[in-house]
Amino acid sequence: MFLQKTLVSLAAVLAFVLAGCSEKPESRAPTTAEPGAASPAAEVADFVFTNGKVYTVDSDNSWAEAVAVRGDKIVYVGDNAGAEAMVGDGTEKIDLGGRLMLPGFVEGHFHTTTQGIILHGPDLQTDSMDELLAKLKKYADEHPDLKFINGWGVRPNIYGPGEPNAAMLDAVVPDRPVYLWQVDGHSAWVNSKAMEMAGLNKDTPDTVPGVSYFVRDNEGNPTGYIIEVPAQVEILNKFVTVDEDYIRGGMAKWFPEYSKAGITAVHDFGWAGVDQDMAIGILKDFEKDGTLGTRIYGSYYWNDASIDPVPIAKKMRDENQEGLVQVSALKINMDGDDDKYSGLYVDGYADKPDAKPEPIIPFDVINDAAVRADKEQLHLICHCFGDLAVRKFLDAVELAKKSNPEWDRRPVASHAQLVHPDDRPRFKELNATYDTTGQWFAFDPYTANVSPVRLGEARMKQLFPIKAMLEAGANVSLGSDFPAASYVADYKPLNAITVAVTRQMLGKPDMPILGGEDARLTVAEAIRANTYGAAYGIGVEDKIGSIEVGKKADLIVLDQNLFEIDPHDIYKAKVVFTMMDGVVRYRDGL
């Protein structure tokens, strides 16, 4: 990371954090209404749930006490008596005992195959360089036969002023190549042995000059720090064959964990670094053998201007419209992020006003592809970190809308660390979804140290404006971007909901509130963003995202009522039951 000034401490940002950090955010439970059944009570159900507190997330914020499921559909939502009438000899009757039932969580931004590439080797998420190096050495010592050391989760805040270099890793593992993924997925860090064996030297050209490249010293020698996915994958491929077995092995352990967290559907923002057909094939194999516990709504990941993405995305869409794995979108990778000066901002960088980052794909190329993709009725989704990237994406959507016949398009701008106030009303006008990551809505060590230096005081108060977007009439969505992150790689929706409601880190109710009290979501708003809101962004809110008759039977049960506990404790609640597509995917004590 190119820090050229001493990083400010958390105390330095207190001056522009609004007061009220010790106050408990308001839960504001939705009003109770009585949904009715649309199926004859005489028909027998496969599952009947009674005596629950069922928050349906429907348009009226209704509550119910019972739900019935037949096959993969919800066939009744209402009172206990109506559900009891659907109990037959083959019905599994489940007494919820007053527990909270919600629709299954829908992740608005996820990467289901990326963990097959990244999540190999030790998890190095820590705030201490010494601890990271100790973990790395311990792993290397415990695996003396490994010819290549891979790791993940390196947090950029541990570098301090300056940037990482190969010598730091050489000190603990000098004799074998080491390749570490930064937690955001947009950088990698390698040792000298890795550079030597990969042939990475002064004469190696940058993969995408100015966008994806090898950081160099004053003499032009690579330092061991690699920026953006194309260059990262170029070096990774020197050491591992990213084939089906490699990816499958990295993925297999995670789907049960997603079910345990209550995730029943994800908006997959791209299978970067792997063959697209291979990625889809692996996911469909998991579906066939019954180990795919989530719906996958995928996209074609586009970050190379030399490739025409439209025919590829259209082919993927046309061939994948059935079952649990479907494709409907073109994902545009617009910019990077703020720590490497690769995010695009309307007002530039506070600490480096002369920085002029270029988009990953030129704007005119994006606009052309957006119009053609929209004509094929492919949804447009975008990695837009800075507010200029958000603006340029909305411009592309608006151009497509003006150029093509009207249809039910669902554009999604994701990350959107900042949205310029002038652009907020455009989301409603364009039926665009504001998607971002709840886990990031706090003064974690990255946001407290890196972002204030880059953006300055005034813009820090506007960081992750999800509440303002709601007030502007936009649909909002929460998505973890797992396994990538700015600080913590975390796929658990309950953690995201906690931070979205408190705007504070987990377990730290006395820390400053990012954006102040007015930036906090209510519990109801946060739940909707991680269920119906995300489903709307995908374009499948008619099938999932709420508990309503006729929708897919994607349901979860929690051991605590999120509306009745201290919002700071929401993340402590446990998912005790997950059903997806009418099949029990996880169960613990219910």
Structural class: alpha/beta
The number of distinct helices, counting runs of at least 4 residues, comes to 20
User: What is the percent of helical residues?
Assistant: 25-40%
In the CATH scheme, the class of the largest domain would be Alpha Beta
Number of domains: 2
Q: What is the oligomer described by this structure?
A: single chain
Distance between the termini: 48 Å
Radius of gyration: 24 Å
User: What percent strand?
Assistant: 15-25%
Assigned CATH superfamily of the largest domain: Metal-dependent hydrolases
Keywords: Signal
Protein name: Amidohydrolase 3 domain-containing protein
Organism: Microbulbifer marinus
GO molecular function: hydrolase activity, acting on carbon-nitrogen (but not peptide) bonds
Please explain how this structure is put together.
Residues 1-19 form the signal peptide. The chain is α/β, with parallel strands linked by helices and 590 residues long. It folds into 2 domains: 149-237, Diaminopimelate Epimerase, Chain A, domain 1; 244-587, Alpha-Beta Barrel (TIM Barrel). It is 28% helix and 19% strand. It is built from 20 helices and 23 strands. The strands form 4 sheets. An 8-stranded parallel sheet has the order 8-14-15-16-17-18-19-20, sandwiched between helices. Strands 3-2-7-21-22-23 form a 6-stranded mixed sheet, with helices on one face. β17 (379-384), α12 and β18 (412-415) form a beta-alpha-beta unit. α11 crosses α12. The protein is globular, with a radius of gyration of 24 Å. 55% of the residues are buried.
